[in-house]
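Predict the structure of Cysteine rich repeat-containing protein.
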Amino acid sequence: MPSMLKVIVPFVSLALMASTAEAQQQRRPDPGCGRDVSRFCRAVMNESDGVILNCLQQHRAKLSAKCAKVLADHGQ
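Done. Here is the predicted structure for Cysteine rich repeat-containing protein.
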């Protein structure tokens, strides 16, 4: 039995690591506004999401098309 565990445990570990990596990848936020935040909202980058969103809205006319679309798609 112990020798069987030596074979099974690595495979189970690999399967768990793969599923965890996949789940993390699915939860990543859309990076569509990352450059715009860095460019226009650097002073508030460490603040709450609401503060950053407010900053982006204040600079709406200067945002990239991609960021403007992300905001529009999310009702902002």
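The chain has four helices and no strands.
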